[in-house]
Each structure stands twice: as C-alpha cells, then as structure tokens.
Description:
Layout: H1 10-13, H2 27-56, E1 58-59, H3 63-77, H4 82-108, H5 121-130, H6 135-143, H7 151-161, H8 163-177, H9 179-202, H10 208-213, H11 223-231, E2 234-235, H12 254-265, H13 271-290, H14 296-333
Parallel strand pairs: 1-2
Helix pairs in contact: 2-3, 3-4, 3-8, 4-9, 7-13, 8-9, 9-12, 9-14, 12-13, 12-14
Amino acid sequence: MNTQADGHPAAASRAVEPGAAEPRPGDAEDARGARRLLLIAGGAYIGVTAVLVAVFGELLVSRDVVFVWLMGLLFILSLNNRRRYFRGLLVDWLPFIAFLFAYDFARSIADTTGIAPHYTEMIRIDRILFGSPIPTVYLQDHFYHPPAAAWYDYAAWVTYITHFFGTLALAVVLWRFAYPLFKRWRTLVMWLSAAGFTTYVLFPAAPPWLAAQHGRIGFVHKIKDEMFAHTGTKSITSAIENKWVDAVAAVPSLHAAFPFMMTLLFWHRGWKWRIPFGLYALAMGTALVYTGEHYAADVLLGYVYALVTFLLVSVYWRRKERRAAERAAEARAAPGTPVPAPGEPTPQPVTYSVGPASPRD
C-alpha cells in the first residue's frame, strides 16, 4: 500500500511545492526512521493491551470501547502528522462511527415492528442443501464435548470475537496507509449495514440456538457464551450500548458478510491477499455455524449480500471515475488551457478503482 499524507496519494504528497525548500539527502532516511519508531510504539500499545486483557480478563468487544482504543492506536501511528489525525477524526471518523452507532441502535429495535420471527425457513433451506441433521446440529454432536473445550473450540471462539473489532481495525490501517481504500471500505460497510438492517426489519429470523430453545431443531449449545466461561473472560462494560441486541437478526449473517467483503476489497491485489482474507471469511462462516449463531444458509446469504453490494458500488465508482476523466480531458482540450512546457510531464487523472482490472499500488 502506498503511504498517504493528508488524505492524498503518497506520490502526490512528495511533490515539491513552489517556494518550498528542496529535500535534503537525509530527509527520506529520517522519515523512514520516524515511521519505524511509530510502528514500534503502535506494537507496544497493542502488546500492553494484550497483557491487560490477559490479567483482568476483560475483552474489547463493545463498539464504543473498540473505537476509543483504535483511535488511541491511530493517534500513535499519526504522531508525525497530528494535524491530519485531528482533521480526519472530525471529517472521516466521527460521521462513520455515528452511522455505525445509529445502525446498532436501530437494529436493537428492529424486532419491535410486530412481525413474528421466522423459525422454519432457514432450517428447511439447510436441510435441502445439506440434509438432516442440519450442519449446526451435526457439527456440535460430533465435535463439541462439554464440559471440556478442545483447541478448535477456542479457535472458533477467537474467530467469532474478531468480528467486533475487525471491521474498524481494517478501516484504521487503510486510513493510515491507503486512504483511498479507506473511503472505499467505509462506503461498502455503510451500504452493507443498511442492506442488512432492511432485511432484519422485513424478515426477522431466529438463529439456531433460539430455534433449539423452541424445540424446532435438536439441542444446540451457545458455545460462544460457554467459551467466555471457559476462558474466564467478559466484555468491558459499554458506555453507550445498553442491551442493543436483536436476537432475531440472523438473516443475512453480516458476521460472515464483512470478512467476505474484505476479500473482495483486496481481490485486485492478487492471490497473496485473496488467500488470507478468503481463509478468514471461510473460518468465520464455519465458526458461526459451529457455535450455533447462524445457519449455513445465513452465512451463504451473507456472502451474496457482500458480493451484490460490492458489485453495485463498484459500478457507481467506475462511472464516477469515467465522468471525472472525461471532464479532465475536456478541460485540457478547452481553449486557453496551459500547454505543458517541453519536457514537462502531462498531468494524468488519478484513479482509485479497486475493480479487478485496477492497476496495483
């Protein structure tokens, strides 16, 4: 990823402004040294947090707690450009997190519309696709053996927990090191959340653990909650969220959709990015089914929502970039447009497309 400065591409940010002092020979090495120190400081911040979590057994799960912690990490990584950090906090981050808080609150009241929760539809789809017993019941019957917890139980639990900070953590990394992709990711997250919320309102659906409690399927353990007991951990109390939970918001699984959206966002960068993000999406989907949080059909539908959202937004981006390129060409062809001096490069329009045919950074 090209490092960004003040929200602009790194290549553009390195241009020398008229009247500015010429860079000295050691400036580049000093900048690399400063970045290295900031990365070390950021790693220390993460390490200290991990130690505190291990000592006190309190996890950063609530969105407000995760956001404050990530803004602290981003501040450390931005100490060499504090003005950009505070401007970005106001312009980029506060509107984004306000939208996510509004989504969380709206989702928590989505089940108050009077529409009865759906229990049987997703069970039928799972049986059509995978037979009987459905995947959740089959996996728990064969692999979950309480009161003991196997290594893969811990792996499934950790994978599930990453959902609560993975989306914002990726946004932080992109904002600091690939600002155009941050804007893309933010747009995708907001539209995907809106699509999911609309479905939750129109089609409230019960997850497997709730269907089991109503006798619709065989017994299902809430492995997520049982693993909190196994690990002796709990989530840090949220300062804002107060029971913002919708137990019948299972279709589609946005827990599965966001990791798959990460795969799509980095698809144009080749297999060295596709493979790790693809494995993460697969691991998250498996963990959701195994822990009884979602049906396999919920996970597959989450992938579909992510793919459709990505394709629709990509079409809009390409049209916007094409119009910008056409306006730039018209401006260059207009009478009175300054002609570059001999030997001076012709300005080229900048594109930040993340489509499959996009050039790599």
